[in-house]
Amino acid sequence: MEVRFATIRLLINVLMLLVTVVEYSDSQTYYSGFPQVVPNRQQFFQSEPIMISCEGLNGLIGWRVMKKTKGDVRTCAPLWKTSTGPCNIINAYPSTDSGEYWCEYEEKQKSNSVNITVSDLESHVILESPVYPVIEGENMALHCRKKDSNSNYMAKFYKNGISIGSSSSGNIMIPTVSKSDEGLYKCSIADAGESPESWLNIKGELYLCVLNNR
Fold first, then answer.
1. CA-CA distance, 39 to 56, in Å (whole number)?
2. 107 with 212: CB under 8 angstroms?
């Protein structure tokens, strides 16, 4: 009987160790189910370059970057035959490049999607916020960026239209985020204008970004 109990305890310990290893592995590949966006932010000024890549997702090569703009779904590249590999947008434009992006592999697997907003030429302010969901408990930094300016300036930040603070450096830190921090964020700079709004997703620590099989 004692041998049986010892065996059961050993099996339980092994199972607990396996769960720990799996959770650690998942945390290391948290963003593996998303397209890679460079720079890592949701908003861009018109004519800025953007690179979106899917290579290596699920250990596969040959993904296509797909996008949905104004209800129209197509490959990020102009032609389907040459649309595998990274999608390089050299001069981003609001009407053609603002939208939802994801990865597809042979029309069988689909990644999670990200949203990108390209402002028009008249806009002089964007909010730099993470393009991927933020994990609960992490610190989150937001940057209010003024077009063609590298100096510090006073910026105001808003969540769901309500002021959440201001900063003379253009940056604000939200420590230890929780689900309550999820919402629409924007910023403004005096004499420069207001940024578009971007939705910020907050996910739990055990949230896994996995690919969807069709």
1. 18
2. no
| DSSP symbols for 47-65 | T--EEEE-TTGGG-S--EE
Cα–Cα distances in Å, from 131 out to 31, 37, 95, 105, 126? Answer: 11, 8, 19, 22, 13
How many Cβ atoms from other residues are within 10 Å of residue 35's Cβ?
A: 27
Judgement on whether residues 17 and 47 belong to the same structural domain of the protein:
no
Nearest of 117, 92, 109 to residue 32 by alpha carbon: 109
Residues 90, 19 share a domain: no
Please report which residue ranges of 89-168 form alpha helices under DSSP H. Answer: 94-97
Residues 100 and 200 in one domain: yes
pLDDT digit string (tens) for the chain, length 214 residues: 544 544 444 343 333 333 333 333 333 344 568 999 999 999 999 999 999 999 878 888 899 999 999 899 999 998 888 889 899 999 999 999 999 999 999 878 999 999 999 999 889 999 999 999 999 999 999 999 999 888 889 999 999 999 999 999 999 999 999 999 999 999 999 999 999 999 999 988 655 444 555 5
Residues 6+ apart with CB under 8 A from 176: 137, 138, 139
Range of the domain at 100: 36-213
